[in-house]
Amino acid sequence: MKPKTTVKTERTACPQQKGDTRRFAVMRVAILLLILSLLVTSGILTYAKFTNSLYAQRTVAAYDAVGERFSSNYLVAGGGVRTVSVASAQETPIAIVTVCNYEQGKQMYPNTLDIDYTVTLELVKLSGVSYVPATAGEVGAHQITVSHGGQTVYLNSGNLSDDETFSGTLYADYGATSDAYTVSFEPYQNQIFLRMTVVPDENLALSDLIGVLKSEIKMAGASSSWTGSFQDATGNAPSSYDGFNYRVNGVGSGTFTLRWDATKVGLSDMSRMTLLSIPGATEDGSSITFPVDAEDVNLYDLQFYKINITSETWDVMTSSVVIYEFVAS
Fold first, then answer.
1. pLDDT for 233-278, tens place per residue?
2. Helix, strand, or coil here: 29?
3. Beta partners for 124?
4. How far, in Å, are 50, 99, 104 from residue 64 at the CA level?
5. How many CB atoms sit inside 10 A of residue 143's CB?
6. What is the 3-state secondary structure (H, E, C) of 113-159?
7. Which helix (H) or strand (E) holds 83?
8. Full-prediction pTM beyond 0.70?
9. How confident is the model at residue 9 (pLDDT cuts 50, 70, 90)?
């Protein structure tokens, strides 16, 4: 018998099978590259769409414009000096100091969180260019009183400071809200001043509100000036905007009248409500007249919506579309 012969064979792919495998790998790479390309292109187009959109830019600007949403009509972050004016030494200088849960003039954007705060009061004098604590001897017979919520603090030679009496909470559920403190200089004097500091809850990352209040004699109407102006970027034509930001601000007191061409723009409902909520404000068609006093509120931020703005320039917008008149008192 012949011995069995074992023949070993190797499995080899036929040429057609090798070709199919190679084509499948190439197709997979091509599909992955196509997907990556689409994702990159989509991202670029999305970025271009939103960064070139005036509407998107205005939306961001409007959000930034709400401010810190913790403010006062007399006190500011970092500190400042405000004057309480009277017409003669026989008058008692009185200021109503507010503590608000919104940026001044922007009541339509109140803080969405409750704000707990405390108040510190201190009698100070001017030494060189700085305000420093006053001594009992320097205060003498002068007295400054601060009242709020049925409580009154008498600051005088026997009580130079107070940091325990006043505190409060501005509740978000109430919307735009404020607390008012009445400050009186008794009698009139211009040597001893009040430093008032409002400290918010440290967990809210809000700035302290600080101010030095002083009194002076000033003739009625002197240095009073209020104006109105658009706050939008003038590098873009008015027709490119859907609406307009308008600011009314000034110093002193008087009567301010705001008029607008109702065929061109309209005052937003929130802005209208803000102005008409001012005691003494009146409305006549497309105009609102209201009293202003920088000692209470020194600016109002308003919004107009576009009705028919086509080829108007910014000069036309300020000379005929929205105009104002101020009469000092």
1. 777 889 988 889 898 988 788 999 999 999 999 999 988 998 999 9
2. helix
3. 133, 193
4. 17, 21, 14
5. 19
6. CCEEEEEEEEEEEEECCEEEECCHHHHCCCEEEEEECCEEEEEECCE
7. strand 81-86
8. no
9. very low
From residue 15, alpha-carbon distances to 9, 28, 80 in Å are 17, 21, 88
- Which residues pair with residue 267 across a beta bridge? 304
Query: What's the chain's length in residues?
Result: 329
- Tokens, residue 159: 């009580």
Encoding tokens for residue 211?
Answer: 């101010």
Residue 66 CA to residue 104 CA, distance in Å, equals 9
Tokens of 260: 């607008």
Average pLDDT score, the chain = 80
Burial of 251 (0-12, 13-18, 19+ CB in 10 A): middle
Quick: pLDDT tens for 43-97: 433 333 222 222 223 323 333 456 689 999 889 888 888 888 777 778 888 888 9
> Is 239:312 a contact under the CB 8 Å cutoff?
yes
Q: How many CB atoms lie within 10 A of CB 66?
A: 15
Tokens 């007399």 correspond to what residue? 74
Comparing CA positions, the residue from 328, 319, 300 lying closest to residue 260 is 319
Name residue, tokens 């400054």: 144
